[in-house]
């Protein structure tokens, strides 16, 4: 019987398989490294892009916050200016009120009635004075009620007093200024334009 030694052939096959395995392993490792590098590069690019977007958004948000602060400041200034404008408008509409009140009181004061004190609190005026009789106080109240600029004459008290050895009635009454009618008159004058012609 002839004996054939297959050991070198098997050794060569094992060696070839080992080399193929090493080569495939190296190729797989290389492919893995390439895939990892590409993935890492792509992810790093995405992260850098997102970081740039985030930085841009933060910058824009900071700019918007500054704008919001400026807008709030402008709103506060606008509200302050509006309140000042309203105060000025109310002062302008009521600036002639004192003259109007004194003129109306002089017109409506009947003979035999004298004012001692006058105090205004808002639209309310308190009149204190002397009259020759209670009838003249009633006449004064009727005149004040009929006035286009004064209204709601309320008698607080009437009492007997002596003034320069004469018996008189000392009275105190409240009356309100009719501001709506005064403002309508001012608006009508403004609408008529200069010279009183519309």
From TrEMBL:
The chain crosses the membrane at residues 21-47. It comes from the Bacteria. One of its GO terms (biological process) is type IV pilus assembly. Keywords: Membrane, Transmembrane, Transmembrane helix. Pfam families: PilN. InterPro entries: Extracell_DNA_Util/SecSys_Comp, PilN. PANTHER family: DNA UTILIZATION PROTEIN HOFN, TYPE IV PILUS INNER MEMBRANE COMPONENT PILN. This is PilN domain-containing protein.
């Amino acid at each position: 019987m002839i004996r054939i030694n297959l050991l070198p052939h098997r050794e060569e096959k094992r060696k070839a398989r080992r080399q193929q395995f090493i080569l495939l392993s190296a190729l797989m490792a290389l492919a893995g490294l390439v895939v990892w590098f590409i993935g890492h590069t792509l992810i790093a690019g995405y992260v850098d892009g997102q970081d740039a977007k985030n930085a841009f958004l933060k910058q824009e948000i900071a700019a918007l916050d500054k704008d919001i602060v400026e807008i709030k400041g402008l709103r506060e200034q606008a509200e302050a200016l509006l309140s000042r404008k309203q105060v000025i408008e109310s002062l302008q509409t009521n600036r002639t009120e004192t003259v109007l009140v004194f003129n109306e009181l002089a017109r409506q004061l009947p003979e035999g009635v004298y004012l001692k004190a006058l105090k205004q609190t808002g639209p309310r005026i308190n009149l204190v004075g002397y009259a020759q009789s209670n009838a003249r106080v009633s006449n004064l109240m009727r005149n004040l009620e009929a006035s286009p600029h004064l209204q709601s004459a309320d008698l607080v008290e009437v009492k007997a007093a002596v003034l320069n050895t004469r018996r008189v009635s000392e009275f105190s009454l409240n009356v309100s200024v009719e501001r709506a009618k005064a403002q309508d008159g001012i608006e009508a004058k403004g609408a008529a334009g200069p010279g009183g012609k519309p």
